[in-house]
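User: Structure with magnesium ion, tokens only please.
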Amino acid sequence: NTALVRVRDLQMHFPIYSGLLRRQTGAVKAVDSVSFDVMQGETLGLVGESGCGKSTCGRAILRLYDITGGEVTIDGTDIGQMSQSDLRTKRPTMQMVFQDPQASLNPRMTVEAIIREPLDEHTKLSAAEKEAKVGELMDAVGLNRRFAKRYPHAFSGGQRQRIGIARALALNPKFIVCDEPIAALDVSIQAQVVNLLEDLQEKYGLTYLFISHDLSMVRHIATRIAVMYLGKIVELAPRAELYSDPLHPYTKALLSAVPEPDPAIAQTRERIVLQGDVPSPANPPKGCNFCTRCPAVMPVCKDIEPTYQEVTPGRFVACHLFETTGTAEKTAGYI
Ligand code: SF4
Ligand code: MG
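Assistant:
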């Protein structure tokens, strides 16, 4: 089991300018020291409330931004500091499926032209070869080839997302970031698109980072799940463990708000309502990012940031309650 994508200490900060001279007076730490691997062939769910930095994280990994710091390795190549021109050669390996298929498809291009565009940009295929490939891709995502000359507005939301997926597949990628790919779709269509993504994963050996605000949704598709809060990953665990035995207080609160299908687990779960609002990522609290809202907060939490660490094999948590190293030193004088 090898990692296809390796992210270490990823930082994506956006400068804040203010005053007459537009001096930089601070930074929004949208993604702050995030580390994880995405294993070959898996679906890693990246979950959190809106504004937690999960979409920015997905885009930063694909280098749609120049990142502030850290390391991003995809398929053995460190692309973290690569120039945009060098990145061109890596683009085919990594693609994105966007949340809003309406906004991500050019309304003036036919379906055929939309799916062909990456082939035009990155390959030297002949016109006939491209046409054949577009046809294959339409078949693969369940779009009737007869619709090739139609424009996006003629399609339903679910069909438009299929067009977006076909375009993402055009260059035979290995890694796809799916940014809330079903959030904008009717509930009746959501399962179809999830099933399609799963079928395609199996057929083409794809690896997904699946971004969602909905823990009951990623439960169906993710192998492992990372929970993000205020720019940081607070917990990462295999799916079954995360749902049956969440460790981080924030994960517990999030899970307590979603319906639990397993009655044995449901019985043990009480509703946790968090107080207060998420602090601004421009001005996060000292110590633990979650300390202003955490039901289990201790004095140490307001001073010292917990270390994100593997607490049992395969389970990562950033919380003083679970620290396995350095706890004695850190809590000296507090507990
Ligand atoms: Fe809560 Fe403290 Fe753990 Fe942060 S470190 S989640 S404030 S208990
Ligand atoms: Mg988003």
